[in-house]
Write the structure tokens for this entry.
Amino acid sequence: MPLDRAEAATAGKAPNATWLFFKRWMDNPLRMASITPSSPSLSRIIARNIQREPDEVVVEYGGGTGPVTKVLLESGIPASRLFTCEIDPDLADYLRRHFPDVNVIQGDVCNIAELLPPQHVGKVGTVICGIPMVLLPWEAQQKIVDSIFKIMPPGRSFLAYTYSLGSPLKYKELGLKARRVGFTLANVPPAHVWAFTKA
Ligand SMILES: C[S@@+](CC[C@H](N)C(=O)[O-])C[C@H]1O[C@@H](n2cnc3c(N)ncnc32)[C@H](O)[C@@H]1O
């Protein structure tokens, strides 16, 4: 379902994030996974667990309408040091309009090593994976995990959030160590945040 630009123009402002998210969910429920954007509570848990040296950047996988992006900026990450990669062109467009100083990449995270400016490859302090990994087949999970370790220095963790009780990834099979770093009831649905490192 295309984004209703006429509706946005008539209102004189960008379409409401929750409504846009819901429309994208109706169009592609497996890719969106949730019917509503992440809450500030979930986003704050993510922000607290970011590791970044001053010369490093943070990369968000699956920016959606930007609720996590917003809290990352509020937590002090400079917009110039924040990249968000979103596959859906309408959502990427929404992110560009609402976060004009953040680096929005429209594309598939599997290609992030080619999409990210070369000077940042290997200089990504943390990747935040907002892709619904639990719904993906094994090969797709593996491709996304591989893409993450291509852009982070050795020894770093990436974060992923999930609505499942268990890990969103088959981490042992993927050669990873996993740690649950937070949980919030103040999200629809309640969500856990996990950190994954190479075993
Ligand atoms: C669960 S939503 C999370 C959105 C937002 N980060 C939030 O917390 O509300 C997942 C997002 O990942 C995007 N996405 C799914 N697969 C992707 C891929 N392979 N590359 C880039 N973005 C992807 C979807 O379009 C969607 O916006």
User: Anything to note?
Assistant: Residues 49 and 156 are 12 Å apart (CA to CA). Helices lie at 5-11, 17-27, 29-32, 40-48, 67-74, 89-98, 112-115, 138-151.
